[in-house]
Q: What sequence folds into this?
């Protein structure tokens, strides 16, 4: 069930009041059933998958905790990892690995006779698999005590606001909230509605409208001129951000309506002055996951290599980060690029500090804007690999984007891009200024109600008259 | 009391500010532009001179501007030089092609290639209007296209154009004693009056969005949109049944009038204006027989596209959305090249 659909709005209108009407002790069972219904709406067959992941992770968590010896703890952790990652591997990466192996062998003259398995990628599999894994990791690292309630743990894995595209929550944050009694709160309700409204604005009016233009141009780039290709690249940067940030706002808003607090996934990422800062502001739940469960263990493993150990840990982390996003070499290359940018920064760190000491203006405000601008250019260029269906398509963009080819509509195109950027900038600026995504609550009541009224009217009319695009990250 | 009035005024003020913000946002990002078509008292639904359009629906992404004379493509005035070869394209959305940039449209390709082949200036004018049926197309041809002095007119007709009901209120053709007469009764219809009320609203982006919402609501196809899969479960064959019953009723209703239209077009067989019927898909046999009977020249685009698709590639498939609909970019190229070669071979090669 997509957040940007009428059925989801009806779903919320029914679920939220029922949740508060039900006696407290049945609420989690109710939420769990609702979450499974929510998931089954996309494809009922995948319920089995989520159940397998839930049961194995719950049992493994218990076993890790109960084991006295380090060896046994490690064994149970490995078993949980193998089961979870195998499910992810089969559904998401099987055909990719078979194709890649076959291509590699054909270079050496071997022709592999192989079959493709026709599998539908289960919605949100990368998210709930990683979310479930945090549970066993945290128990293994002794930062979490396993829960005794199977219902609460199942709800942690399948909680519908986070099920399809995160944020990838931690058990130590979410499970205690399920264990507490929740009461209807007017403040939570207001914040929830505000977050959902802003999320819908981002997704429906910015993300989807940019997305439609981007989809058409990326599908047949050879029919478009450089200004239109540039438009596709610049609007894709906005689409992916507003689509995913919009999703996260709606997820957080929905959880708030149920009295549950889930983490911020975005913190104005395009205001970053470096790629490293970008990853502290973009898809924060995944960045934290990769940092805690992949980068830090790797960094510790390669600590003897000093600077180069860091470079190695960063590179491996980002290659896997790319692969996590999709079973394609273009995603791996996108991850490699980000790893390269960050590794380069680590390698030249000493020299950079010397230059900064020499030239004071590098600390000035205007130079910070220059850094933001160049970081954004790097990000936009790397998004081309993320969006393109093949390397050829990505290179086509790079070849043609810089050969200026305007049309009679150049000014209109520039205006479209500028207004989308301006509106996104205003939202991000207000979020940063008020230090909250629900900044509308800081405004005068009359203004807020007027905004919400018009915003919803426009969104509902737009949902009614045009086909909506799926969330970009729900495909991962 | 004073406080309540203050509050009301403040709310109205904020509402106004926010409506203006959304109007500007929708307009400048072109999410929803003011309508580029309007209801002309003379022609019914037709493009508005000078209006911008922008399309990002399932079938493609296109931007354009209606020229100052109210048709698509470069603005060529009614009078033309003797040396210039002028071709008018007439039809429905397959000719209008608002889901494309003009340079991707077969209009542009035809103009470019034919002028290269015959080494003369060629002007191709696009008079396509989405939603037109054969009666609308004929009125458009008689009342507007002929005023532009074309040497060649290519009328694109699909099976649907013969069978379609009037989608919008506009002048209509009636048969009186075997001859065609244009009627303007539509001005008294409820639908026309409603559209007139919407006319001012359609000058605004928000207004146009309201109008589109109302139209979608009037089509009564919103069950699936609102209730998603649940609707399909409870109404498995709803749409199919209503579509089938609709087309079988209209075939007989318009046959006699369509027959006279084709007969009237055949009267141009001996005039300086050459008319071609571009067959965009298969017609019922009785229409094929009429076309043969009246010796109308036809260009078979259906067979052409089938040949190029080699029976497998779908040339109305749009990769971005995965939907089928109007001719895609590749089909436009094929048609543009084919029409240029066809006209060259027909008129010039023999000489």
A:
């Amino acid at each position: 069930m997509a957040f940007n659909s009428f059925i989801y709005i009806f779903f919320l209108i029914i679920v939220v009041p029922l949740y508060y009407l039900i006696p407290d002790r049945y609420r989690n069972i109710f939420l769990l059933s609702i979450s499974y219904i929510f998931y089954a709406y996309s494809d009922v067959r995948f319920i089995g998958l989520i159940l397998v992941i839930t049961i194995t992770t719950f049992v493994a968590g218990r076993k890790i905790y109960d084991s006295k010896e380090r060896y046994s703890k490690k064994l149970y952790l490995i078993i949980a990892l193998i089961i979870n990652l195998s499910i992810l591997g089969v559904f998401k990466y099987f055909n990719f690995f078979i194709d890649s192996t076959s291509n590699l062998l054909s270079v050496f003259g071997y022709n592999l006779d192989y079959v493709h398995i026709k599998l539908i990628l289960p919605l949100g599999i990368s998210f709930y698999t990683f979310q479930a894994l945090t549970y066993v990791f945290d128990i293994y690292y002794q930062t979490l005590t396993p829960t005794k309630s199977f219902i609460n743990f199942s709800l942690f894995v399948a909680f519908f606001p986070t099920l399809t595209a995160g944020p990838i929550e931690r058990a130590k944050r979410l499970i205690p909230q399920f264990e507490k009694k929740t009461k209807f709160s007017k403040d939570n309700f207001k914040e929830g509605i505000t977050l959902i409204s802003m999320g819908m604005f981002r997704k429906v009016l910015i993300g989807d409208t940019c997305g439609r233009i981007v989809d058409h141009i990326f599908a047949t780039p050879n029919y478009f001129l450089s200004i239109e290709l540039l438009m596709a690249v610049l609007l894709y940067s906005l689409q992916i951000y507003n689509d995913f940030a919009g999703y996260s706002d709606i997820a957080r808003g929905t959880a708030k309506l149920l009295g549950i607090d889930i983490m911020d996934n975005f913190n104005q990422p395009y205001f970053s002055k470096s790629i490293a800062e970008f990853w502290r502001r973009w898809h924060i739940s995944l960045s934290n996951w990769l940092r805690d469960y992949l980068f830090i263990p790797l960094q510790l493993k390669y600590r003897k290599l000093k600077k180069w150990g860091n470079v190695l840990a960063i590179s491996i982390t980002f290659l896997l980060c790319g692969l996590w996003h999709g079973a394609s070499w273009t995603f791996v290359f996108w991850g490699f690029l980000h790893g390269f940018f960050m590794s380069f920064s680590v390698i030249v760190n000493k020299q950079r500090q010397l230059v900064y000491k020499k030239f004071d203006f590098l600390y000035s405000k205007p130079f910070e804007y220059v850094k933001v601008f160049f970081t954004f250019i790097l990000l936009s260029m790397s998004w081309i690999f993320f969006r393109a269906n093949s390397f050829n398509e990505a290179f086509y963009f790079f070849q043609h984007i810089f050969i200026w080819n305007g049309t009679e509509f150049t000014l209109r195109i520039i205006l479209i891009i500028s207004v989308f950027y301006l509106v996104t900038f205003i939202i991000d600026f207000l979020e940063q200024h008020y230090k909250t995504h629900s900044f509308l609550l800081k405004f005068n009541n009359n203004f807020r109600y007027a905004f919400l009224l018009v915003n919803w009217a426009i969104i509902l009319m737009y949902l009614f008259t045009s086909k909506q695009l799926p969330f970009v990250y729900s495909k991962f | 009391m004073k406080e309540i009035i203050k509050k009301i005024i403040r709310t109205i003020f904020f509402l106004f500010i926010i409506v203006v913000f959304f109007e500007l946002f929708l307009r400048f990002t072109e999410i929803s532009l003011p309508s580029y078509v309007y209801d002309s008292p003379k022609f019914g639904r037709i493009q508005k001179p000078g209006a911008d359009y922008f399309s990002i629906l399932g079938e493609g992404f296109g931007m354009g501007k209606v020229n100052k004379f109210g048709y698509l493509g470069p603005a060529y005035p009614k009078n033309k030089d003797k040396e210039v070869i002028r071709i008018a394209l007439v039809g429905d959305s397959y000719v209008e092609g608002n889901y494309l940039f003009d340079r991707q449209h077969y209009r542009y390709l035809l103009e470019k290639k034919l002028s290269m082949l015959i080494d003369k200036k060629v002007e191709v004018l696009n008079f396509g209007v989405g939603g037109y049926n054969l009666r609308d197309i004929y009125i458009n041809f008689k009342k507007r296209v002929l005023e532009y002095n074309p040497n060649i007119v290519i009328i694109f007709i699909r099976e649907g154009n013969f069978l379609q009901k009037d989608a919008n209120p506009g002048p209509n053709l009636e048969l009186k004693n075997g001859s065609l007469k244009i009627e303007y009764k539509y001005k008294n219809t409820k639908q026309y009056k409603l559209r007139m009320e919407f006319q001012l609203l359609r000058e605004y982006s928000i207004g146009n969005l309201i109008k589109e919402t109302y139209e979608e609501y009037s089509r009564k196809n919103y069950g699936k949109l609102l209730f998603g899969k649940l609707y399909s479960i409870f109404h498995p064959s709803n749409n199919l049944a209503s579509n089938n019953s609709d087309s079988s009723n209209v075939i007989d209703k318009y046959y006699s009038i369509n027959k006279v239209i084709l007969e009237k077009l055949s009267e141009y067989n001996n005039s300086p204006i050459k008319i071609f019927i571009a067959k965009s898909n298969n017609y019922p046999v009785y229409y094929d027989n009429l076309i043969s009977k009246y010796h109308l020249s036809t260009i078979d685009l259906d067979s052409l596209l089938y040949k190029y698709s080699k029976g497998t590639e779908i040339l109305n498939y749009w990769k971005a959305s995965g939907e089928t609909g109007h001719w895609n970019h590749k089909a436009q190229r094929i048609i543009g090249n084919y029409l240029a070669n066809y006209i060259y071979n027909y008129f010039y090669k023999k000489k």
User: Anything to note?
Assistant: The interface with chain B takes residues 1, 5-7, 10, 41, 205, 209, 212-213, 215-220, 223, 407-409, 412-413, 415-416, 419-420, 423, 444, 446-447, 449-451, 453-455, 458, 461-467 of chain A (CB under 8 Å). Chain A has two domains: 6-181, 188-475.
